[in-house]
Each structure stands twice: as C-alpha cells, then as structure tokens.
Amino acid sequence: MRTILTVLFGVVLACSLAACSGGERQEADAGAVREPAEVQPSSAPQPLEIVESWWSVSDGGRLSYVVMVKNPNQGMECREPQFSVVPKDGQGKAICHYLDVPFVVGAGATIALANSWEVGDNSVASIDFTLEKPGAWGEAKPLPEDLYEVSGLRKTQMPYGYWCEEAITGELLRNRAIPVEGVGSARISIVCRDGRGAILGVALGIADNPPLGERVPFDAACFFAGEPDSYEAYVIPGPTRNA
Q1: Are 84 and 128 in contact (CB under 8 A)?
Q2: Phi, psi of 186 (to 5 degrees)
Q3: Cα–Cα separations (whole angstroms), residue 84 to 22, 94, 175, 183, 188
Q4: Which distant-in-sequence residues (6+ apart) come within 8 Å of 84 by Cβ?
Q5: CA distance 114 to 102
Q6: Do 129 and 53 form a contact (C-beta atoms < 8 A)?
Q7: Distance CA 122, CA 120 (A)
C-alpha cells in the first residue's frame, strides 16, 4: 500500500445533515478565519478545474462523495469559491442542494472536497458537481510541502456503539506554525483507491487543534466495502474549534 500526502491551505466545514429531502439547500460554513484584502492580479487567472469526482450510496442510505479541484495558477490563490453538489433522482429532479465552500484553494494546489450524509429513502441516480461562484483571487505563494504529515493509515472496525462502523485511522503531525489568526483545527479527507487507481471510497475526519510537533491520532469515518490498495491524504487547515 502506498500513502500520498497532499498539503493544502483552506477549509471545508461539512454541515451535519440528518436527512436530505427534496428541494432542501445546505451550505458548508467556510468560517470567518481571516479577512484578506483582495489583490487584483496582473492578469486574469485561469478558472478552477474539477478534475475528478466520485459518489456512492451505501446500503444504509448514506451518500458519500468527493470532488477533486485543481488551481492551475502557480502564483494565485482562490478564496471561498462555492461548489454546488446536487444529487438527483431518476427523473432528473434535485433531491437537495449542498454547497461546499473551501476557505482557500492554494496556489497550484489540488484539493479534495468530500462529505457524506443520510439520504434516507431517496434514490440517487446522478450528482451534478459545478463551480457555482468563482471566489476571490489574490497573489500568493504555494504553501510548504511539509506543513503536515499523515502516517499509519489503515481501515479499522470501530467499537460497538461508535457512530460509524468503520473508519480510516492514522496519525497527524503538524510541522509548522500556520500564520493565520484563528486557524487551529485540521480537516482530513482520505481518498481510497483500488489497485487500478479507481476511487473505492472516501473517509472524513477532523483533528481538533493539533499541537505543533506532536503526533495526534485521528479517525475518519468511511462508508464503503472492501480494502483500499492506496490512500491519498488531503489535510486542510480550519478554524479553531471550541472544546
């Protein structure tokens, strides 16, 4: 098995959804972490690209998805773009409308926007993933590649009574200070692939305020069958979470 670590700067906070019903619109809270002055780039940036997507509904009626988003601009970051996630039934009718809002898509970065929620008895036939609002662009350098380290990833059966049956467990190490006021937590998205490179499933977790230089354990809930052949870990800094 191989582990690929991708370091990104931004935040996607997933709404906690008990159900997803017809016509309902849900939005991820990007959090008021900073209020940067928008920088007018010297030339128009290339738009963000959705380079890969995947979704699945478990036997228990839980929808999981991931959207891979690439920023092709090496010298500019995009702040708070809004990505629309619209599950549809077999007649093409929207079951709900969800917004995923990363705080920042870093210069030259590829991020994973992943989430899961219950869809109940709704039968999902397709999902539309689109960039609904482009966000604000500003000049920026890429973040250090060693900002985070993820190690020890494995699929684990969780104890009886835990809210999910299985999770991807591992350890997170923060190597550097994050020079942005209010940033503390880390959102961890794990993309699991089979031996052919196809997405098998995704796992989602949050490490609350990981201390500098100290490895902290985490578990990222997952809802798919089978054992991955490889893992890709996408760590996105987020706002400080109150205890």
Answers
A1: yes
A2: -135, 125
A3: 16, 12, 33, 25, 20
A4: 97, 98, 99, 128, 129, 130, 131, 132
A5: 11
A6: yes
A7: 6
Q: Which residues contact 207 (CB under 8 A, 6 or more apart)?
A: 172, 185, 186, 188, 216, 218
3-state secondary structure of 87: strand
Residue 153: how many other CB atoms lie within 10 Å: 24
Tens-digit pLDDT profile for residues 161-218: 887 889 999 999 999 887 555 567 888 889 999 999 999 999 988 888 899 999 999 9
Q: Which residues contact 43 (CB under 8 A, 6 or more apart)?
A: none
Structure tokens belonging to residue 186 = 């880390």
- Number of alpha carbons in the 13 Å side-chain half-sphere of residue 196: 3
Average pLDDT over every residue of 99-112: 88
What would the two tokens of residue 190 be? Answer: 């794990």
Structure tokens at 111: 């991020």
Provide the Cα torsion 145, 142, 207, 4; round to 10°: -40
Parallel, antiparallel, or unpaired: how do β-strands 166-174 and 96-100 relate? Answer: unpaired
Per DSSP, 212 falls in state B
Residues 6+ apart with CB under 8 A from 160: none
Cα–chain center distance at 208: 16
The C-alpha angle with vertex 75 and arms to 132 and 39, in degrees rounded to 5, equals 65
Task: Indicate the residue type of 216.
Answer: V
